[in-house]
Specification:
Four copies of one chain form a homotetramer.
Chain A lengths: L1 H12 L1 H21 L2 H6 L1 H25 L3 H6 L1 H15 L7 H9 L3 H5 L1 H12 L5 H22 L4 H4 L2 H12 L4 H12 L4 H34 L3 H23 L1
Chain lengths: 261, 261, 261, 261
């Protein structure tokens, strides 16, 4: 048993093992890409099904090897990426009966995301990105309140004038998302409303000015902060190295003085 | 009297008190959201009116408790957020007769903003945002002059060619705001004018280039400045900590030398 | 003569003098704004002409006072803002015969820009902005070459397919400016061309990717650089202040050692 | 032979030589610009052909001179810009038979890019830009995976609803590029699909939010990093200069102490 564990751990850490998995993920990616062409899908449906089955079982074996090779089952599932890999592969087995269903096909597309969990540099980058999310909690809450208030006001005021944009609270939120991306906010959304309600410009102008101001100010703030932190942690600045030397020299001076007294 | 003051202060600072108010604000938010659906509003109009009345009186009691619990009435109203809370709630009482009027309903939506004054992290963030406004005074003045000059020139030149965009000074300013957000500036605004006046491109191109240049340069400047300031104030850098140690060691050395002489 | 010079210098530096000029510039701004309304212009044409004449002569007197009050005529005209003021006012006199001509009216709008030369904070900000222009010389040259090459290729390839966008080199440059602002680049410009030439997507995608990359990389670079420089110049950092103290203490230590030996 | 090498090296480094080449590149640029006007091209076709031939041979001689003047042929071609110059000029000779073919004409437009290899400041700037590309390798891979997954899902879901946008994997990728630039993403792409599939908003909103987040976070990160690195390398900060002085003084102190003991 211990022998098996050891062998699995060695296999899982071997670069060839990783390379093969990356290769199979690429094959999987090409496969889901080809399946979007109805002509190809129709002609080679059986073959594609077989390759997909093969890939699924290979990924299953891979995860079993990595699971056995890990210190313990608990340690394996404490790493979120392993949980992600496990869910992606396990769902493929559970939903196997309904092969041609769209949900299943989307799950198979998501297997391409396993490249992130396998390639260390991608994994590191995505981890860094996910770490910035908590620091954006307050800004997201603030943006949420801001969007909600404007959506309620928009629905109240323009429900009857522009039902396709402000008909319900839900469509107002979507419209405001469109407005904050500045896409057709004037030509598509505001100008038709302006004809019926000439004072409606304040609604859009204040929304864009406040929204852009809040988003830029906070988003940029968070990003710059993260970048600064990252660059600070990586390498000590030349200033700090010099200061270390100064401290060392001061210690020596002190010792010299102490020795003499 | 002093006893009451003390009790109120303790209630106001209790976390349960804050939690209840946050909960009621959420109820208020859901209520104004539901009211945007005409079917629901019609059916439950009486109930909604009652809940709204209840919420308004609860918020009134809350403010009275916090007012009594504060050091003095002056100290309470010196905090702008308290003034904001007071106005939002008081206006609900003053305008109570005209319950179904739109202005009143918008005021009730704004009660959701009270979440900002209640939740400390939101309050801190909004305060930080508001603090950046004064530093943008000069840029706003410059942008104002820039917009005004272009609006006057635009109205003079294109008043007859494109009355829907440059008909009056007011609509020119709105159009220029649309142009600076780059929304349909070419396809919607410039190209139709270009047909009548082939040299009009300089008006739009210079406006966008200068406008983008000024806005990016100054806006980013202000934002980066604020971010830097914020990060500087929060924690002393490792460099500064080391320098403090160096200064400490130098003092010790000096003392050693002084003791010996 | 010297007495006059001295008096003029004192007047020119008086805050009331500046305030009056700012007030007159605001009157001038309101005047050109009102003139854009044909109804008002028609009714009060004579009055507006008179006020305009009065403003022009007041500005003339103002510049003469400042000219006499300056150290020498050469020193006065060495300051670019004075040259700007002089041209704006002098052109008003030279072109006086053709009062209703558009060019003249635009010149009168530009008098509002005198606010920048009069208000110190605006002047300082615009000076800072103009100083960043030389540092962008190389990037502008690079962008120019980049735009020119794409405009020539675009004209060559799509001259016949989309004459309204790529008919001549000049219109291609304008279209590329539209594309780099991302305005209707796909829906308006690319998709119609894509129908006739299915491989034309590479032209637009590469242009946007390279253009955005170059502009962001260099523009942000210049801006950040300027911001950093500005914040560096303003105040010595706390680190530098501490280092100065360390150097001072080291000098004292050295002196103590020297005194003893 | 050595004499010739020496003469060529001196010519190649002479500023007049560079000026002439820059002048000829400008002539070449004007020429390809004029050729886009069919009327001019038709009338002066022979002359333009002759000037083009002359320019090509002058550039050939220039490269031969620089090749002979360089230390060795290997050293010459180790510099990528020389390889670029060589290919641009050599291809002009190889494809000479098919003068009027579009590919050839585009190659002649690209000769304008030689300005980058000749003007040192442009060369330095482009080199700096190209150096930032490797550091964006991981982000490009991540963006690629992200685009691919969304393109496959989009094709699967909206192939029949919106064939012009999501008909094939290839057109889906182009549409997603359009969506990430925020161009007509709502008015042109999403809203028509929304009519047929009311739940499709999640596809676009998540794509834009994740895409914008990833791109801003990483792109800005890379840019800021590069800017910081650049400014760090250029000049030692005043802090570092002072620290050097402190270290110098400490050494002197130590020596004084050593001398005395």
């Amino acid at each position: 048993m211990k022998q098996l564990k050891h062998t699995c751990a060695r296999i899982a850490q071997h670069s060839l093992f990783t390379s093969i998995i990356i290769g199979l993920i690429i094959v999987n990616a090409i496969l889901v890409g080809l399946e979007t062409y109805p002509a190809i899908l129709e002609k080679y449906a059986t073959w594609m099904y077989r390759i997909d089955r093969f890939l699924l079982w290979t990924f299953t074996i891979e995860i079993v090897i990595r699971l056995i090779g890990s210190k313990s089952i608990g340690a394996f599932f404490r790493e979120p990426w392993n949980v992600f890999d496990f869910i992606i592969v396990a769902s493929g087995h559970l939903l196997v009966g309904s092969y041609y269903v769209t949900v299943l096909r989307i799950l198979r597309v998501l297997r391409v995301l396993r490249a992130v969990s396998i390639i260390p540099s991608l994994r590191k980058m995505v981890n860094a990105l996910l770490l910035t999310i908590p620091s954006m909690g307050t800004i997201m809450l603030l943006l949420g309140i801001f969007f909600y208030i404007y959506a309620v006001i928009g629905t109240m005021l323009y429900q009857d004038i522009a039902p396709e944009y402000f008909g319900t609270l839900h469509s107002s939120l979507l419209t405001l998302f469109q407005v904050i991306t500045l896409e057709s906010w004037a030509s598509g959304v505001m100008r038709p409303i302006l004809v019926a309600d000439p004072s409606s410009w304040w609604y859009f102008v204040t929304f864009i000015v406040i929204g852009a101001f809040v988003i830029i100010n906070l988003f940029v703030g968070v990003v710059v902060n993260n970048v600064e932190e990252a660059s600070r942690e990586e390498t000590p600045s030349p200033t700090d190295i010099k200061l270390d030397e100064v401290q060392q020299e001061l210690k020596e001076l002190k010792k010299m003085l102490e020795d003499r007294s």
